[in-house]
Design brief:
The protein is α+β, with helices and mostly antiparallel strands. The protein contains 8 helices and 27 strands. A hairpin with a 7-residue loop joins strand 1 and strand 2.
Length: 404
């Protein structure tokens, strides 16, 4: 499928998906569909390939480069892919978005295993292509070898006070151990680090974050912590607070607790009323009864506000629908990129193709591609964060009016 804008210059997009297990067949089918839909030169190609294509990802990427001749060609391996109205969970899949972007500047960049973000902000700005016409960055990172929060922190520091840093993307999920994920940037293949594509110029990028968990109980302040352990909450042992949680929530929430408890860390401790969109959601990894510690998938600090949370399919559905409802007042999208938690899909919802179906309904079946991530990147209040159990979305449009 493809979409174009009547404004000049004309931006165009097309998406294609193949479910073939053979990489060459899959990439060839996708490449021909995209070429037929767009014709002419393509500026950016982004592909998400299931782990079945790990060994031949570079060959598949080269087939796309040969057919479409893009300036920037990116591909990564994932647990499952999304696109063209379908979510292929755990199945062979190759999903690609191709974009013709006249008037848009693309800056691809990468962070290798033995590299870190520069400390000098001018060097960071130069690396990511940050400037007056900067619009957004799509960031794809290996979770085993990349310190994504540090990358996002360095990127945020580049933006002047009050100006947002819209970054969207995800942790690639094609492997369960280091060295098995694959990232391709043009002709460079790696198993580590991160790849970013920054967009500047005549394009608008709306970055949405939809949460799949909601708070239960009451907000609490961390009064003692060590490494990734919360030792005390409000002066009480964290395990005691957790054990008493069922007594403080509605009976209807007890069933949700059977699926496990999460913890939300408030993005700002100064906000008077905290809702589900005000937290970074992290897993509760376990408890230590002898120390009273609750072990979480984050390094907490004393003074942070936290609240226990549960995964809730109704909340996830409502949140995504409300976010997309706000898009109907804007011009038709060119395309979209979806990064949905690998704990969503059939693991959370009763029906297949849940997130992509809602997006297609609200956006009018525009070209969409994406993948099931092991962590989702998206902005809250203009600052980018690494989320869990969320769906983040980048909606691309031709630039209508210059931002102030």
């Amino acid at each position: 499928m493809s979409s174009t804008s009547p404004t000049q210059p004309i931006l165009a997009a097309a998406a294609a998906v193949s479910g073939h297990l053979d990489t060459r067949t899959s990439a060839t089918e996708v490449a021909h569909k995209l070429h037929d839909a767009l014709g002419g030169k393509v500026d950016l190609v982004i592909s998400f390939a299931s782990f079945h294509h790990r060994a031949a990802l570079q060959e598949g990427g080269e087939l796309l480069r040969t057919t479409l001749n893009p300036d920037v060609n990116v591909a990564v391996t994932t647990e499952g892919v999304v696109g063209c109205g379908t979510e292929l969970e755990g199945l062979a899949g190759w999903s690609t978005l191709a974009l013709q972007l006249p008037g848009v500047d693309l800056q691809p960049w990468r962070i290798e295993l033995d590299q870190s973000m520069p400390e000098d902000l001018n060097e960071v700005s130069e690396l990511i292509g940050y400037g007056p016409d900067y619009r957004s960055t799509i960031l794809l990172a290996d979770p085993f070898t990349t310190q994504v929060p540090k990358i996002l922190g360095a990127m945020s520091a580049c933006a002047p006070s009050g100006r947002p840093m819209p970054v969207v993307g995800g942790l690639i999920s094609g492997a369960s151990q280091a060295g098995h994920n694959v990232l391709l940037l043009n002709d460079q293949l790696t198993n580590t680090g991160a790849v970013g594509i920054s967009l500047s110029g005549d394009i608008e990028v709306d970055c949405l974050v939809s949460h799949g968990a909601r708070p239960i109980g009451e907000p609490l302040v961390i009064t003692k912590a060590n490494q990734n352990m919360i030792l005390e909450l409000g002066g009480k042992k964290a395990t005691e607070v957790l054990q008493r949680l069922p007594q403080s929530i509605a009976p209807s929430d007890h069933e949700l607790l059977k699926n496990g408890v999460l913890i939300g860390i408030a993005i700002s401790e100064y906000k008077e009323h905290l809702g589900r969109g005000d937290f970074m959601v992290r897993n509760v990894l376990g408890v230590q009864n002898e120390t009273g510690a609750v072990v979480i998938g984050e390094v907490p600090r004393v003074g942070q506000t936290v609240q226990f949370m549960v995964r809730d399919s109704n909340t996830a559905t409502e949140d995504l629908q409300l976010l997309l409802d706000s898009q109907v007042l804007k011009s038709d999208p060119l395309a979209a990129l979806l990064f949905t938690c690998n704990g969503r899909g059939r693991r959370l919802f009763e029906e297949e193709n849940h997130d992509i179906s809602i997006i297609d309904e609200r956006l009018g079946k525009r070209p969409v591609t994406g993948f099931f991530a092991s962590g989702e990147i998206g902005p809250v209040a203009g600052r980018p964060f690494l989320h869990g159990h969320a769906a983040t979305l980048a909606i691309l449009r031709p630039l209508q009016d210059e931002p102030e």
